[in-house]
Amino acid sequence: DIPITLTSGAFDPTGDFARAVRVLRKSIEVEGKLPATLVLAPVEKGDGATTTLCNLAIALAREGRKVVVV
Q1: Residues 64, 17: contact at Cβ < 8 Å?
Q2: DSSP characters for 6-62?
Q3: Distance separating alpha carbons of residues 70 and 68, to the nearest angstrom
Q4: How many CB atoms lie within 10 A of CB 55?
Q5: Quick one: which of 6, 22, 35, 57 is 20 to 30 A from 14 by CA?
């Protein structure tokens, strides 16, 4: 296994972006549960979908959830 280290300021767990990702994570719950599958598709190139996806995956993994990003 190759560890992945994210060093960009966008991944600061105490920053505004991280708080926004936690709000997003809470907003995708349905009746208190997360869906088994989530698809995140970018609207246009450069809109931050990859950054959002990575941060959402990190937030879910930190909760102990299994995450697969393809």
Answers
A1: no
A2: --SGGG-TTSHHHHHHHHHHHHT-BTTB--S------SSTTSSHHHHHHHHHHHHHH
A3: 6
A4: 23
A5: 35
- Tell me the pLDDT of the chain (70 aa) as tens digits: 555 555 455 556 777 877 888 888 888 888 878 888 888 888 888 888 888 888 888 888 888 888 899 8
**CA–CA distance, 51 with 30 (Å, rounded to integer):** 23
Which amino acid appears at position 51 of this protein? Answer: T
Amino acid at 32: G
pTM attached to this predicted model: 0.68
